Amino acid sequence: MYSRGGYLAFVDFLFILLLAFISMFILALLLINPVPKKSEIERKAEYIIVLEWDKRADDDVDLWVEDPDGQIVSFRNDTVGVMHLDKDDLGTRNDTIFFPDGTKQIIYLNREVVTLRGWKTGEYTINVHMYRKVGTKPTNINVQMLKINPYVILFDEHTIMATRGEERTIRRVTLDIDGVITSTNTLQKKFVNTPLQPIGPGT
Q1: pLDDT in tens, 144-173
Q2: How far is CA 116 from the centre of its chain?
Q3: Measuring CA to CA, which residue among 191, 199, 196, 153 is closest to residue 74?
Q4: Could you give the CA distance from residue 53 to residue 1 in angstroms, rounded to a whole number?
Q5: Cis amide linkage into residue 36, ω under 30° from 0
Q6: Could you tell me what percentage of the chain is helix, strand and coil, using 3-state DSSP and rounding each to the nearest 5?
């Protein structure tokens, strides 16, 4: 028969054993389901300019953006100052994914995106250029400019292009020191010295 002191010691032992078991159980749960981490690299963007065209078209349409200092981001120079071109989309030619078993899948999405991590006071000129035209069917083109913080669609423009070498200024946007649009216009300005060429299959 336990003495009173021995009985209390035994209860203390059981209590400590129970705490140890609960602690190991909680630790095991954490190891099985780790707390999700935030991305170690935060992608910061203030404005995004998105060019999209007919998703099944093999045409190669390029996005060109000039900042107030005259620097231009495009497939020729994909990072300039605070501007970055995420991808030079070539139409369906670089939308194909190959799997280990040799099969392939085409992602039907034609899109180029320019990200602005900040802004400068002055005018930004946004152009699209038909680098490669396949066939005679006109290509539907859509360009959006988005402000991220807070999220606002600044403009959403639709146009049609049908000729290889055609270049068009979609919008010229002037930002003030606070990043607010003070004026816009569509005065045309050329960046690409590509002569117009006849439309033809595979050209």
Answers
A1: 999 998 899 999 999 999 999 999 999 999
A2: 11
A3: 191
A4: 88
A5: no
A6: 15, 40, 45
